[in-house]
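Hey, resending since the last one bounced:
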Amino acid sequence: MRHRSFGLSSLDPRPALTGALAGLGIGRRKTPVHDGLETMSRIGFAANGVVYVSVGLLILATAAGMRGQAVDQQGLLYVLAQQPLGRVWLVVLGVGLWGFVGWRVLQAVFDADREGSDLKGWTVRISQGFSGLFYAVLASGVFELLDEVGPAMRPEDMAENQQKAALLLDLPFGGALLMAVGLGIAGVGIGNIVMGVVNDFAATLSCSKTVCRWVLPLARVGYAARGLAYLPLALFVTLAGWRAQASEVETFGSSLAALQNQPGGGWMLGATGAGMIAFGAYAFVEARYRRIRAPRDLKPR
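The structure tokens again:
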């Protein structure tokens, strides 16, 4: 006996629903490569969190008079290297930071965040690319330290920075170039402050409303604090170019120390340290909840 067809198969919503979910990246089967890229990126966020929480704690210790001078990310590496199991710390941190560099490559080159190729999209992706370069330098420094770990080891960043500034000043229009570097650092700082105020961080997280309500203030405070911390260094470098004096170029950590010497500087330094901790804590949140969508074809866009 033949069953009657009432034409309901054409109204079946399942194909359309499946297509919509696939367009959103839901239900799409992941390849081992995509799983590996996601794992690498999450480890990178966690390593970034370790860096900024540690820097923030050291800055707070300086503000409380428990340390002589604040340190930046590079200075943190020297501090960690002198701790028990210093080499292990460096290897784990270095691997994690290279993972974060890989995530920045996915963002900037392969447009993992779907920013697009218009002016706004390229602006975001270029900033992500420069961020990747910074973390690549930091990650490379981690492994360079493996041969230098010892009790007498101390950072020489200031001398190196001043030497680079002197080479830059020797070029035609070197002073103007150094000023441009300082203004670029200021732009990075101001950009972080603006992001802390206007960015929709919830759009990049896959968490419940309750969790997002608690963690989003960490992002806003952290980005604003990181941006403000760049401004003293930007001032030093810009003034060095204006006066053509390479000796005035200092490090990020030295700029924080200069901040401490101002009236109320201890409180400002403490607030900066707390902000850095907030930024690091948010990096841990991203390691857990960040939407990481590795491009399907891994072709530059």
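The two ends are 57 Å apart (CA to CA).

Sorry for the duplicate.
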